[in-house]
Amino acid sequence: MNEVKDLEAWLMPWLNAHLPEFASLAYTVIALALIVVISLGIHFVLHRVVLRWVEGRARSTQRIWRRAFFERKLFGRVALTLQGVIIYLQAGLWLERDTLLLPAIQTAANLWILLYALLSLYSLLDALLDIFRQRPAMRAFPLRGIFQSIKLIASIFIGLLIVATLIGKSPIILLSGLGAMTAVLMLVFKDPILGLVAGIQLSANDMLTVGDWLEMGRYGADGEVIDIGLTTVKVRNWDHTITTIPTHALISDSFKNWRGMSESGGRRIKRGLRLDASSVRFLDEADIRRLQKARLLDGYLNEKLQEIGRYNSEQPVDMSSLVNGRRLTNLGTFRAYLAVMLRQHPHIHQQMTLMVRQLETGSDGIPIEIYAFTNTTRWADYEGIQADIFDHIFAVLPEFDLRVHQSPTGYDLRQMASSP
C-alpha cells in the first residue's frame, strides 16, 4: 500500500496540473502500462533465460526426473502460474481500490492461476508416471489409474473454485449445494467411480499389473496388459490388436491371469493322442528282446520281468492261456517309455508334476495324455518343445506295434476301393 501511495503522491500532482479532467484515467493507464511492462519483463526472464537454461540442463543430464519434468512442460506451466500471481499482486499494488479494473483484473488473474495450477498438477503427475515406469519395482502398480483419479478429483475441485470466483461466492456454498447433485454426479461419473474402486481392488489384491498375460474370452482379450487406466484396461493381443476392457469388468467378471505361470518358470503341456484299441496286445518274447535294446526301456523291462516272474511262479495257473497270470502289454510298456523319456528330457521341468496317464476309453480310441511342464515359459520355445515331443511319439509308435486312432480319410477309401 505504501508503494501505491508513493506512486499516487508522485504522479497525481503532476497529472492534476497538466490533465486536471483526466488525471484519474491517466493514472489508471499508467498503472496498467506498468503492470504490462513488468509482466512482459518477467515473462522474458522466465521463458527466454530461466527455462532455456533449464532446458539445456535437462537435455544434457542423465537424470530421468529432470528430463521427465521438462518434457511434460512442468517448468513452463509453473512459470505461467507464477506470472498470474505476479499480475494479481501488481493489480493490488498499482491500481486504485475504487477503480472497476481492479476486480476484473484480479478475477482474470485468479482464473489464470487456477487453470495453470491444474495444468501444472497434470504435468507433475505425468512426469512422475514416466519416472516410475522406469523403475521395475513400480511397474506392477496401476499408477496410471491412481493418477487419473487424482486428476479427476483436482479438476472437480478447481472447477468449483472457478465457478465460485466468477459468481463471487464462497466455494463452501457450492459444496453445501452439492448434496442435491449427488445422484446426477454419480450418473455422469459412474464409469470413473467404478473404475477407481476397481483399480484400488486390483492393486490391493495384486490381481493384475502392467505386463501380465491376461485372457478374457468375453471381451476377446488374450495378450499382454499394456495400460491400466481409470476407466479402461488396454490389452495388446498376440495378433497385435488392442482390446479395451472396462476396469470394473475385471472385478465383476472372471478373467485368467497367466502371471503365476510366468513366475513359476514352467509352462504346462497337457496334450494327448488316441490309440486304436485293436492294436493293444501282450508282448511276446521277440518283442521283449527287441525293446530291451532301447536304452530308456532297459531298466523298466528288467524290473518288470522280475516282478511278473515272481508273481506268476507263486500262482498255480496254466500260463499257456493268455488270460492267466500277468504279462507285459505294448500299451503299458509304451506309457513307461514316455514317462522315462520325459524324466530325461532336458527341457522338461523335473520339479513339477509329470505323468503319462490313460483316460477313459470311448468310441474314438484309447486316450493317452502327457501332463508335464516345460522349463521355459517363452511361447515359441514352449511350442517347439511340445511339437518335438509329439513328433517323436508318433514316429516311435510302430516300435510298440501301436496305431493312432483316426477317422477314415480319402486315401483310406481309395485304398479300399482299389483292393481286389
Can you give a write-up of this model?
This protein has helices at residues 2-18, 23-60, 64-71, 74-94, 101-133, 143-167, 171-176, 182-188, 190-204, 249-252, 259-264, 285-291, 295-314, 330-343, 379-396, 410-418, and strands at residues 213-216, 221-228, 232-237, 242-246, 256-257, 267-275, 355-358, 366-374. It is an alpha+beta fold and 420 residues long. The protein has three domains: 2-203, no CATH class; 207-258, Roll (SH3 type barrels); 267-314 and 322-418, Alpha-Beta Plaits (2-Layer Sandwich). The strands form two sheets. A five-stranded antiparallel sheet has the order 4-3-2-1-5. Strands 6-8-7 form a three-stranded antiparallel sheet.
Look at the structure and give the mean pLDDT: 82
End-to-end Cα distance: 120 Å
**Oligomer classification:** single chain
Number of discrete helical segments: 16
Classify the secondary structure makeup into a structural class: alpha+beta
Helix coverage percent: 55-70%
Report Rg: 40 Å
What general outline do the C-alpha atoms trace? elongated
Strand order of the largest sheet: 4-3-2-1-5
Structural domain count: 3
Strand count: 8
Question: What order do the SSEs take from the amino end to the carboxyl end, as H and E?
Answer: HHHHHHHHHEEEEHEHEHHHEEHH
- For the report, how would you describe the main beta sheet? 5 strands, antiparallel
Which range does the strand content fall in? 5-15%
Query: Uncertain segments of ≥5 residues (pLDDT<50)?
Result: 1-6
